[in-house]
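Consider the tokenized backbone below.
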């Protein structure tokens, strides 16, 4: 393979990694590609996840915006209070993967909003690297909110549920 072909192949590979980030809503991917004994390519593609964070509270603020056009500070203040990650009852993801709310398709979910759970009860499963990881309840309480979709991607530290 000529140097030009390798360069074009590397560029296509990096573009494919960037597309993978976007499609799976990942924040970072790192890959090492070895071409031979003394030739390799180390690639780390990441994206800034700070932009989507303000977008999440925006839909909640949009309906209130026409009612309070004269008070822009009132719209900005509720956003941090509604952040589920800062809630004291938030159960966060211990890993990056795909969240499943039920053991297999067609079966009832592990928990629903309003269910009472005991510490150690399975809340959901996160698939990571083809391994199904049961996520236990860290404390007893009532499931107030489920913040992930069945089959949706989750990031490390992302809020999964609120248990009070």
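A designed sequence for it:
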């Amino acid at each position: 393979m000529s140097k030009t072909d390798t360069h074009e192949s590397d560029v296509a590979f990096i573009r494919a990694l960037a597309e993978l980030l976007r499609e799976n809503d990942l924040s970072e991917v790192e890959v090492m590609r070895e071409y031979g004994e003394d030739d390799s390519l180390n690639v780390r593609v990441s994206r800034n996840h700070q932009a989507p964070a303000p977008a999440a509270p925006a839909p909640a603020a949009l309906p209130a915006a026409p009612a309070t056009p004269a008070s822009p500070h009132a719209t900005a203040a509720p956003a941090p209070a509604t952040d589920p990650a800062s809630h004291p009852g938030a159960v966060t993801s211990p890993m990056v993967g795909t969240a499943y709310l039920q053991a297999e398709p067609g079966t009832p979910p592990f928990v629903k909003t309003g269910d009472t759970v005991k510490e150690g009860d399975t809340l959901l499963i996160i698939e990571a690297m083809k391994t199904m990881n049961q996520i236990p309840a860290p404390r007893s309480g009532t499931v107030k909110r489920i913040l992930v979709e069945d089959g949706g991607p989750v990031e490390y530290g992302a809020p999964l549920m609120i248990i009070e």
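The chain is about 25% helix and 30% strand.
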